[in-house]
Structure formats: C-alpha cells, structure tokens
C-alpha cells in the first residue's frame, strides 16, 4: 500500500497556489463600484475584540445570540454547544466580546478527529463560530479569529494548527475564512447534516 504523507505536508505545496487564487478573488470583490460604501478606519474605530471562556456570568448573553434564519443550519444550536462543551473535558465554549458585550460564540475541540474526521497532528478544531446578526458586516469575525489564535498560542503553545469544516454552499463563510488566513485543503467531509464540507486549516505559528 502506498504511504500517504501527513495532511499538513501535502497541504504546503498547495498553499501558495490557493493563497494566490484567494488574493485575486478577494481583490476583485474589494474593487470599488460606483456608489458603493467603503469602510474607512479613520471614520469608524472598532472596539477591542477579545475572547474568553464562557462563565456563568457570560452564559446568559451567549444564549441570547441570534443569527439569520438561513445561518442556523451552519452554526448549530448555541444552547446545545454550551451544555455539550461543559461536559466534555476536551472542549471549550468561548465567548467573543466587543468591550464588555458578548457579540459571538465558538467552540474549541481538542480531540484530534472531531473536526477533521481523521487525526491532524497538533491541531485544534473550531466549531459553531458565529457573530450575532446585529454585529455582522463590521469586521468583527476576522478580529475574533485573530483573538482566538492569540488565545490558543497563549494557553496551548503545543498546538500548531486551527482546523474547521465549512459547508460547500456557504460561500460567504468560505470567503471570510480565507480572508482570515485559512487555507482550503481540498478535502471534503460528507457527514455534515447540511451537506458536504470543506476542511480548512490555519497555522497558529
């Protein structure tokens, strides 16, 4: 049987080609159109985005988070993920905060096969990532990913990859994750309840 190199080794030669393609796509999407509004950082200063383990004090705000109806099949049920993460020693329920206000949620899984369905060495799984519908479209998602990575580097320096699955039809999320530094491995997971999912990775180093 022909040996297969580890996933990250196979990903590396593809990363440059994929990154170049993503840069072209994002540049085209960012091109100004007549009458379009462009974000000006001088005009609008975003609050500091940070992440924290969900505590009893934060849990009520997390439960109040809402997304658009067509997004629920992608992000799952927040209440379930809070309860499930609490009873799972290999999982963390995380709150995303702008100042002192909870604006989002995600879950971290440290078991090697939860997200990737097969071991990805030294990885952490990112699941159920969401920004409340009232706060979408302001760059909070990208800032939250950066805060998530910084938190993992601080608390789990032995982990080197952040892995997630994103549904193939969720084009907006795919673009957002690429912009946040994730690379599509080209591998698909067919067990998702909303359809096939891409496996995407981001380096924590």
Automatic annotation (TrEMBL):
GO terms for molecular function: acyltransferase activity, transferring groups other than amino-acyl groups. It holds the Pfam family Acetyltransf_1. The keyword Protein biosynthesis does not apply. Keywords: Transferase. It comes from the Bacteria. Residues 49-205 form the N-acetyltransferase domain. Coiled coil: none annotated. Signal peptide: none annotated. The keyword Hydrolase does not apply. InterPro entries: Acyl_CoA_acyltransferase, GNAT_dom. This is GNAT family N-acetyltransferase. The lineage of its organism: Bacteria, Pseudomonadati, Pseudomonadota, Gammaproteobacteria, Lysobacterales.
């Amino acid at each position: 049987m022909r040996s297969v190199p580890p996933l990250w080794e196979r990903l590396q030669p593809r990363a440059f080609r994929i990154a170049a393609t993503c840069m072209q796509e994002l540049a085209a999407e960012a091109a100004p159109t007549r009458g379009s509004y462009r974000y000006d950082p001088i005009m609008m200063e975003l609050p500091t985005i940070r992440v924290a383990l969900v505590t009893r004090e934060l849990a009520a705000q997390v439960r109040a988070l809402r997304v658009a109806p067509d997004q629920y099949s992608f992000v799952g049920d927040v209440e379930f993920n809070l309860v499930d993460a609490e009873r799972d020693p290999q999982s963390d329920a995380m709150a995303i905060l702008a100042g002192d206000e909870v604006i989002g949620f995600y879950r971290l899984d440290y078991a090697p096969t939860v997200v990737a369905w097969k071991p990805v060495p030294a990885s952490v799984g990112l699941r159920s990532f969401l920004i409340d519908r009232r706060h979408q479209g302001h760059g909070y998602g990208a800032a939250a990913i950066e805060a998530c990575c910084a938190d993992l580097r601080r608390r789990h320096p032995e982990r080197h990859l952040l892995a997630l699955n994103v549904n193939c039809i969720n084009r907006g999320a795919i673009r957002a994750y690429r912009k946040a530094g994730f690379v599509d491995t080209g591998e698909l997971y067919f067990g998702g309840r909303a359809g096939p999912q891409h496996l995407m990775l981001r380096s924590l180093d």
